[in-house]
Write a structure and sequence with these properties.
The protein contains eleven helices and 14 strands. It has about 325 residues and is of the alpha/beta class. It has two domains: about 220 residues, P-loop containing nucleotide triphosphate hydrolases (Rossmann fold), CATH 3.40.50; about 70 residues, Alpha-Beta Plaits, CATH 3.30.70.3190. Bound molecules: adenosine-5'-triphosphate (ATP) and magnesium ion (MG).
């Protein structure tokens, strides 16, 4: 058994003119793995995917798929890779059935293989009821599924899906995520998104990319744990705001306090403290000792979105 990674991205840099959209990006994807590609707008996700799928040549570095170089062996790579681009070029005046047949033909599939795969992918992507419908009449979510269906049509070993859940309703998002997850194992999958919870749901490993560089690579569950370096506490206190802030700031372990005034001399305070120290008792004591009213005190766990922001802005801190 070979343990060669299915995808090897090695010191990849891609320039548009003078602008490096991605710089010195290196990572591997194991066979059967579902890898999440997470980053804000303009991070370089689509650019990286286009190089991996052979649609754009690297400026520097190499990319191999199953050992094939994306430039030198581009035909092999295209055979091995199914790609769902950010905007799927769907033909709105074709039926789903005809579109799939058309995509099979331009990929050089035999007529027999097309017949078999057309119905298989229709089933996998739950498109049965729209098989004979014009693509132009499908809702966005079902068009996304047609995009996935065409990507898996030629039975590629690798699937590259660029923001497959963008712009679809929450129910279809759930179904599409399940579909992608179910494609792992048999396929090696790279899926991009800028939604952090999404990668925790579908991916085994996440690469966070920001401004063209890899910020971190980890399992989704480790990411959350690793990043919770601070503890967040919300309080509501009745008392003179400036004095309350001073006292809260003086509690050992408190790193930052911000507040927003409420009615009746009350204010809400958001505190940031060091990880691993439960500051709640000390905070409660400090407030009560000054004779102020402690209306509320609660630890808040950081949302995944906050974790993401922290990661991608960590360099500036
Ligand atoms: N064809 C192009 N010509 C010039 N610059 C480009 C081109 N395509 C992308 N860029 C630039 O490269 C950078 C990376 O873009 P890319 O589309 O890869 O980001 P992305 O992570 O996919 O973003 P999004 O989440 O918005 O899809 C951006 O600054 C973008 O403006
Ligand atoms: Mg993109």
């Amino acid at each position: 058994m070979s343990t060669q990674p299915m995808i090897e991205v090695d010191h990849l840099t891609k320039y548009y003119g003078d602008f490096p959209a991605i710089s010195d990006v290196t990572f591997n994807v194991a066979k059967g793995e579902v890898l999440g590609f997470l980053g804000p707008n303009a991070a370089g996700k689509t650019t990286t995917m286009r190089v991996i799928t052979g649609f754009l040549p690297p400026s520097q570095g190499t990319v191999r798929v199953a050992g094939y170089d994306v430039v030198a062996d581009s035909l092999e790579v295209r055979r091995l890779v199914g790609y769902m681009p950010e905007t799927v070029p769907l033909y709105t005046d074709m039926t789903v059935k005809d579109y799939l047949a058309f995509m099979g033909t331009i990929r050089g599939m035999s007529r027999k293989a097309i017949e078999r795969r057309k119905s298989e992918v229709t089933e996998v992507c739950h498109l049965e009821q729209y098989y004979g419908s014009l693509i132009g009449k499908l809702s966005k979510g079902f068009r996304q599924r047609v995009g996935i269906a065409q990507a898996i049509l030629h039975e590629p070993e690798v699937l590259v899906l660029d923001e497959p859940t963008i712009g679809i309703d929450p129910i279809q998002v759930v179904e599409t995520r399940q579909l992608i997850k179910s494609l792992g194992g048999q396929h090696t999958v790279i899926v991009s998104t800028h939604i952090l919870p999404e990668v925790s749901m579908i991916c085994e490993r996440v690469i966070i990319i920001h401004e063209g560089e890899i910020v971190t690579v980890d399992k989704p569950e480790n990411l959350a744990a690793r990043l919770e370096a601070t503890e967040h506490i919300n309080m509501e206190v009745r008392g003179p705001t400036a004095a309350v802030v001073n006292v809260l700031r003086s509690v050992p372990g408190v790193q930052d306090v911000s507040f927003s005034p409420q009615a009746d001399l009350k204010a809400r305070y958001a505190l940031v403290g060091r990880r691993g120290e439960d500051l709640r008792e000390a905070l409660a004591k400090a407030v009560v000792e000054h004779g102020w009213g402690l209306v509320e005190l609660a630890a808040v766990s950081m949302t995944l979105e906050q974790i993401f922001l922290r990661l991608t802005t960590a360099e500036e801190a």
